[in-house]
Amino acid sequence: MNLDNIIIGDFWHKLPDGRVQCDLCPRNCQLKTGQRGFCYVRSNENNKIVLTSYGLSSGYCIDPIEKKPLNHFLPGTPVLSFGTAGCNLACKFCQNWDISKSREMQTLSDQASPEKIAHAAEMSGCRSVAYTYNDPVIFYEYARDTAIACKEKDIKSVAVTAGYITEEARADFFKHMDAANVDLKAFTEDFYKKIVGGSLAPVLETLKYLKNETQLWLEITNLLIPNENDSEKEINQMTEWIVENLGPDVPLHFSSFHPEYKMTEKNHTPHTTLQMAREIALKNGMRFVYLGNVHDQEGDTTFCFHCKTQRSSRLV
User: Fold this and answer.
1) Which residues contact 199 (CB under 8 A, 6 or more apart)?
2) Confidence at residue 2, expressed as pLDDT on a 0 to 100 scale
3) Which residues of 219-243 are buried (b: 16+ CB within 10 A; e: fewer)?
């Protein structure tokens, strides 16, 4: 193993039997020396949890901020996006599986220090840096240090995350972020268990924490998969929960599914399903509801809740 990019991680402790437990995400992987966690990038080296992907990226891209998607945070500005290898969930529909499931970090990754990323964002005119493609929770130390370097240049940091993080690590991770889009994958524990390989409850706790205990800007994405999480009942329950626990002003993005990874037999999300979901959300009191991965004039547009003035959220 190349040790050049490995640093000792935060949030772990030693167990009485000699193993080390990672306390960063709810999986709480318990590892013997030499073993890697479920995410693949955190491992037990000499009885310490280390991050093996520090300084290594799966690639960089300049995107419109709306692509994250964030429609109410620095609208109309470019964002420098990057991710690493690995993930702490096992979504059967993962649309970035070639990155999140990569096991070839040393050969497929670009190398960049946090300071180099901040400089690149500044030179390219980006107002923000997004930690995305795979979940930044698993490369916490790299994302944290990059966010600190960006802050020195007045560049904002955006976490695109599934929110699958422990209470212990939550505050330390998000205090370095200025905005987040949380992927709320469904609203049932059954879906999270069978399709995602995780649990819904920690994600809901993350959402409540972000909205009620931080100043970070929050938006939510829900990818609608035919016959899996797209029923009127589930969408109604989810949007009612959002309004009750997070308030009506949190923007919600319903995104269209396309067949990918281990769910290639599924059909694309019908446009009518997306429109139905948006109507339910609006009926339940949500004020800003968008449709993603499709062209839809209503779903692409921001309407002021008070005066109904329009602002297109799609960059041309």
Assistant:
1) 26, 164, 189, 192, 193
2) 46
3) bbbbbbbeebbbeeebbbebbbbbb
Q: Which of 104-108, 188-192, 285-289 shows the lowest mean pLDDT across its residues?
A: 104-108
**Model pTM greater than 0.85?**
yes
Helix (H, G, I), strand (E, B) or coil at 78: strand
Specify the pairing of strand 30-31 against strand 78-83. unpaired
**Residue 183: closest CA among 155, 146, 144, 225:** 225
Other CB atoms within a 10 A radius of the CB of residue 168 amount to: 11
**Over 60: is that where the pLDDT of 153 sits?**
yes
The pair of structure tokens assigned to 109 is: 């990754």
Instruction: Note the pLDDT tens digit of each residue in 119-149.
Output: 999 999 999 999 999 999 999 999 999 999 9
Q: Which domains does the chain have, with CATH numbers?
A: 7-51 (no CATH), 56-312 (3.20.20.70)
State how far the alpha carbon of 255 is from the alpha carbons of 61, 183, 210, in Å: 21, 10, 22
